[in-house]
């Protein structure tokens, strides 16, 4: 195992043009955390806006990060770490750095890594948020989720049936719809990013919802470069699930919500048109 030597890491990274492997990105990320460099923390992670860097609620001045086992699976990775001197304490903290690959680059999954640092289940934050919702809102959430699942399942079956019945027409329409969907996802992602950056005083929970929604939308958009049936359905599902997520945001985001609802409605309508176009006879 190797202790992070921040000075040596900086020299090596500048010499090779920047971190590339999960191990290098993890080192650069933790170096930025220790130095309190919000810009680099954002550059090396999925944190959309450096202003949201919260230092994970800890004092890193005398911290040392010791990497351990590395597991890389396709577009995700995990690096076990031990933390010494965090919060000026003598005890070690066992945690993990989680990374994802985005546009061919490795990035630290900021919030998942923060959850691991807190040594609590990843979904405990979501569970506590749901417990705070009123019963009426919870019931509406469940109903909307069920309706969404049924709607997309129905459309998915129709698409599968049409895809099996056509070849060139499917490819042509899929490419056209994929480009349209990609533009809509990009527009929605940019709007969410703007809302995140224009509201630095929003609660950590709301900032997390927006940040993770942006990351999911961008990942879905990337999957549409060569759209297949699964990618088209998944990207549409992500957009609609994003709407369910932003409906829970604080009232400070109300002026954005109407636009977001309209954008998601256009995405759903686009999928419906795509299904109908596939059904129509070729001219």
UniProtKB/TrEMBL annotation:
Domain of life: Bacteria
Compositionally biased region (Polar residues): 212-223
Chain positions covered by the region annotation Disordered: 195-223
Record's protein name: DUF4878 domain-containing protein
């Amino acid at each position: 195992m190797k202790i992070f030597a921040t000075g040596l890491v900086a020299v090596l990274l500048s010499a090779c043009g920047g971190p590339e492997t999960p191990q290098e990105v993890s080192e650069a990320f933790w170096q930025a955390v220790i130095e309190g460099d919000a810009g680099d923390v954002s550059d090396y992670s999925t944190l959309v806006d450096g202003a949201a860097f919260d230092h994970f609620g800890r004092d890193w001045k005398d911290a040392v990060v010791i990497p351990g086992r590395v597991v890389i699976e396709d577009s995700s990775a995990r690096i076990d770490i031990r933390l010494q001197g965090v919060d000026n304490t003598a005890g070690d903290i066992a945690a993990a750095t989680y990374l994802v690959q985005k546009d061919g680059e490795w990035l630290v999954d900021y919030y998942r890594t923060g959850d691991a640092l807190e040594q609590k289940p990843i979904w405990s934050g979501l569970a506590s948020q749901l417990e705070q919702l009123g019963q009426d809102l919870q019931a509406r959430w469940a109903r909307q989720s069920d309706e969404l699942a049924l709607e997309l399942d129905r459309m998915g079956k129709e698409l599968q049936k049409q895809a099996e019945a056509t070849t060139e027409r499917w490819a042509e329409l899929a490419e056209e719809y994929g480009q349209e969907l990609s533009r809509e996802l990009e527009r929605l992602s940019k709007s969410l990013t703007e809302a995140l950056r224009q509201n630095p005083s929003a609660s950590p929970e709301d900032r997390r919802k927006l940040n993770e929604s942006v990351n999911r939308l961008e990942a879905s958009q990337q999957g549409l470069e060569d759209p297949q049936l699964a990618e088209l359905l998944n990207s549409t599902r992500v957009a609609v699930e994003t709407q369910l997520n932003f409906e829970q945001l604080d009232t400070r985001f109300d002026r954005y919500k109407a636009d977001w609802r309209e954008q998601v409605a256009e995405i759903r309508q686009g999928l419906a048109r795509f299904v109908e176009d596939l059904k129509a006879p070729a001219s």
